[in-house]
Amino acid sequence: MPPTSGTRTCRLTAEAERARGFTLLELLVVLLIAGILLGIGIGAVSTGKNALSGAAQLLVTAALTARSRAMLCNAPVTLRLSPGALAVSGGPESLWEKEFPRGVEAVSVNSRPLAGGARSVVFQPLGLVREQVVVLRSDAAELSVYVPATGSPRVLEGRYTLERIRKEYL
């Protein structure tokens, strides 16, 4: 007797069952592998940016230290920048020196290149300083550290000049 519409059964052949799709386990394995590869790729890119951010924070800390020391001692304090390092000194004594993280370099101060040389930023006893823009570069990107006359630095993404900062932020 032929089946009626309510009792109709459908059987798939073995070949049709295999062609239905992926199992949950197969999908999870693919997602796991994709996640691992994505994590490795993002980690490689963010390492350069982390080093650059670390260098910018190092420069901000150095500027704040120099400003505080100048106000505390009532004497000028110098922040000296070279392509691979910075130093804070008050008078003849060096307060501290730090190197930038590997792969990061200071490129310019107020649009003047640092290649092969160094530049000094002098904080006066009242904590004031001439406006400065220091550009830091790594393989991943560039950051600018703006030190206004009041001496409180700010980190900006990309390459900035004093003129551009005055137009966009002041």
From TrEMBL:
The chain crosses the membrane at residues 21-45. Keywords: Membrane, Transmembrane, Transmembrane helix. InterPro entries: N_methyl_site, Pilin-like. It comes from the Bacteria. The keyword Cell membrane does not apply. SUPFAM superfamilies: Pili subunits. Signal peptide: none annotated. NCBIfam families: IV_pilin_GFxxxE. This is Prepilin-type N-terminal cleavage/methylation domain-containing protein.
